[in-house]
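Hi F.,

I've been meaning to write this up properly since the lab meeting, where we talked about keeping a consistent format for the predictions we share between groups. The idea is simple: the sequence comes first, exactly as it goes in, then the structure tokens exactly as they come out, then a line or two of notes. No screenshots and no reformatting. I'm using this chain as the first example so we have something concrete to point to.
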Amino acid sequence: MAAVRAFRTVVGAEGLRLRLGVGRTPLRQVCVHRYRCRSSTHFLKPEYPTFNKPSLQLSTQSRFFRTCTAVNGQIVQFKLSDIGEGIMEVHVKEWYVKVGDTVSQFDSICEVQSDKASVTITSRYDGVVRKIYYNVDDTAYVGKPLIDIETEAVRDVVPEQDVVEAPAVLNEEHTHQEIKGQKILATPAVRRLAMENNIKLSEVVGTGKDERILKEDILNYLAKQTGAILPPSPEISPPPPEPVQSKPKGMPPAPKTITPTLAFTGKDQTEPVKGIQKSMVKTMTAALKIPHFGYCDEVDLTRLVKLRKELKVVTEDRGIKLSFMPFFLKAASLGLLQYPILNASLDENCQFVTYKASHNIGIAMDTQQGLIVPVVKNVQVLSVFEIAAELNRLQTLGSANQLGTNDLTGGTFTLSNIGTIGGTYAKPVILPPEVAIGAIGKIQVLPRFNDRGEVIKAQIMNVSWSADHRIIDGATMARFSNLWKSYLENPASMLLDLK
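Output, unedited:
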């Protein structure tokens, strides 16, 4: 390195880049992957129009490290990366760029919809968009290019000779990416989301592969810090009845108006099955292979209605909306402890039954995008209040179509609350690989007899269960339902089994 004549640096989004002139060798760009700051810097006027940025003059201590070569103005194919959960294709919902637009790292490129959730794709390069491979509503495939970007991209990574490390000044953003020398795994979109919300990645627990921090980890962390509150639903008053005009006696009946028949000009419309609807087709097709066993019963919620009314004021003061679902979920979890076969899965060859340790209970939710089933994880270790807070978060994200893959996967048992729409009994369909599901009807005020034979007003709710009859017999399903029913009819009895 004694022949080095010129040494200029530019700090970019990817790291530190150097331009070196060695002897009579032409200047070339070198990408440096690791660096440390050791001394002071001085800004100089830009001498090279390629960068169009001020340079830094550095001095004092130095270290040796490895580099790789790069080429300016290269066309790079920006490919759709694997977004997890075995998803191989997505539906393009919206483009945020067009041909000729200049993009930077972390800029939004497009929004895609998988059969699990919506995902915003962000750029990994700085450059100009030269080609877009898909139109809106097209199907894009993992590993195939989305767009072409003309950018300063690495052409081939080959070991170069050791060069002197250039000291640089680190900003706060880089300090969030390493903990005691161990790099934190996160995509650029996740890092940008954390930066926008002033969240240090070192404080977030990653749930992805190799402890990778996912988008839902940031949203979960943010929700725990601020609390998620559902907006109140507006009340719709029925229109006033139209006044009925009395007809004088003796008046002949008014002649009937004959309306001419209009020709119907509508046309059939065919569209592809995609997004959440496509996921429903796959899941329900697999569910048809399961022999369903049905069981129905009614539950007297009179005491629970009174208890929830008392606790609702307390939870609202703490910023959480309390519905009946947290009690239903907690009672189901206590029942699953006694009947773990209902919280199991059966392999495809029907040779092995896996008993799940965690009670990850899915909640069927109706949204504008279709039916989705977000999952409340580890209900067995959550209090009723914690379950209510998690439901608030899931409902808020579901209404905004922002549920992540982690929120929609991993379920071991499911409850569907059809009562919010209407109806009493249903025939719920099991979601493979689960083996049981329950459908909850609406609460009705009905007459019932008490212990003394007197007619009283009772809050009655119907429940319908479906179980996989290959491994669950009718008696087991009935005993579980009776236990679940007893917890709800006598809420105080849940205190005996809470841990």
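Notes:
The first strand starts at residue 4 and ends at 11.
The two ends are 67 Å apart (CA to CA).

If this format works for you, I'll send the rest the same way.

G.
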